[in-house]
Amino acid sequence: MLSSSRGIRKMSLQIGIVGLPNVGKSTLFNSLTGAGAQVASYPFTTIEPNVGVVDVPDERLLKIAALVNPEKVTPTTIRFLDIAGLVKGASHGEGLGNQFLGHIRNVDAIAMVVRCFRAPDIPHVAEALDPRSDIEVINLELALADLATVEKRLEKVRKAAKGEPKECEVELHLLERLHEALSRGGRAEGAALDDEEKRILRGLGLFTAKPQLYVANVEEEALLDGDELAEGVEEAGVDAGVEVVKICAQLEADLADWPPAEAAAYRTELGLAESGLQQVISAGYRLLNLVTFFTATGGREVRAWTLVRGGSALEAASKIHTDMQKGFIRAEVIPCEELIAAGSFVAAREKGMMRLEGRDYVIREGDVVHFRFNV
Asked: pTM of the entire structure?
């Protein structure tokens, strides 16, 4: 048993919402989180960052809980951060400047909201709607903000390298490569880096090193078949290798006030399989290559957890509690579909469906895991 909450690790997946002013960022944020952020049709409404934490809906968690009848059911969560709209020149202090970018330095991924709706009463920062151009503006500002971060760090490391050249060699070479890439308007890619370089890169908190998602904020009529504005975002996504999600933020905000059953029925009428929240969550999990696993602690709690795909049983144990990681013995594992079909843990054990796995076992999507440990 866990003697206290000390050592328990509770980290929400974090997604930063960025975009130009008046693209529907705060409306989308409200629809996703129900946090009631201020929304208005003039720039820079969002002075301080809006923060909302939402539960990740998962029917499997509820089905497992129905078998156990626990005291508590705990889903995983996502933390959304909505910052002030960026404008061209933000990295050099235009508009409200890039001071607000600091609020999303530590997010796991960035969702860029792109305006694909026509509303004459809501001004746009450009004379005409051009989603591809809007995406280029935001990406350029993120790259320029990163360039300023790298230049500042590079200056310090170059000075330190004069006295300790070997200790600074890896970071110095990395910063010089990043500076070259960002100066060309490129991204801070981390795929070809070794473990030490990746650690340094994470510490810099660069925006262009974070996975991106484009959210095309479309009119209701364009949700299924799209239009030329949505097509512009999709083409930009293909060119950049970025996933695109089409959402009508105003529709989602309106449906957020409906009874859940009625909202679901209306989405079905429109031909929508998921809510906007579910679409963003699913895309975020794909973007970050995450899987969900479950634990059922006696009759006390059934809980969902996230883990990077390919993670081991030992890494999964560390997500829950440091004691589990330190005293890991075995993991008792069953896919949630098999557990639900068996009807109970007792029946699953009697049928030999529960497997004993070691610390190197790779956790799979939907695994239900009971950790055996001794501290």
From this structure: 0.85
